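[Discussion] Sanity-checking designs against the backbone

I'm trying to build intuition for which residues belong where. Below is a structure token string of 165 positions. I'd appreciate it if someone posts a full sequence so I can compare it with mine line by line.
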């Protein structure tokens, strides 16, 4: 794991969601709380930055194969407990969505070591409104991630490379 929790800059996401609240939300969506689902939720709530299938699989250790991780992430995404992010390296990353938050935010990603910083800033709503008016669109949304080289990589203190080899 190359994203220590200390790097996380999202104050409200620093609060770990209790596991029983997460499993309650799953039940409310009429989804069974299976062993793998509970284990995946537990791994995600302990990690404050997005994790790939393989990160989650590695954190779970034995007893849960990659296909099971993949299938259950899909279920969790479908009921809105987990959000998928594409950080441009071909590996989808997953994060928990808090109940009071729609999960909308952005990331700053180091292209050398895959460090992910959570970004709170977003466009002012007027920007989407003007796009909607100009092009006669409704319900505009956006996805956006930022890329760069982190200070450690820039200083040559590179950490191990991206997890997705
Ligand atoms: Zn870096
Ligand atoms: Zn995030
Ligand atoms: Zn945004």
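Best answer:
Here's mine. Compare freely.
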């Amino acid at each position: 794991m190359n994203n220590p929790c200390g790097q996380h800059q999202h104050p409200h996401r620093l609060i770990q969601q209790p596991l029983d609240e997460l499993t309650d939300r799953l039940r409310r969506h009429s989804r069974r709380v299976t062993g793998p689902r509970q284990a995946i939720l537990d791994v995600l709530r302990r990690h404050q930055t997005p994790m790939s299938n393989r990160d989650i699989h590695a954190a779970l250790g034995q007893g849960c194969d990659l296909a099971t991780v993949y299938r259950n992430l899909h279920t969790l995404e479908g009921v809105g407990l987990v959000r998928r992010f594409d950080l441009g390296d071909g590996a989808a990353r997953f994060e928990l969505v808090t109940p009071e938050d729609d999960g909308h935010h952005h990331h700053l990603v180091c292209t050398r070591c895959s460090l992910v910083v959570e970004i709170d800033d977003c466009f002012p709503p007027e920007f989407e409104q003007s796009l909607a008016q100009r092009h006669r669109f409704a319900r505009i949304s956006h996805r956006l991630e930022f890329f760069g080289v982190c200070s450690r990589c820039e200083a040559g203190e590179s950490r191990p490379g991206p997890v997705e080899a």
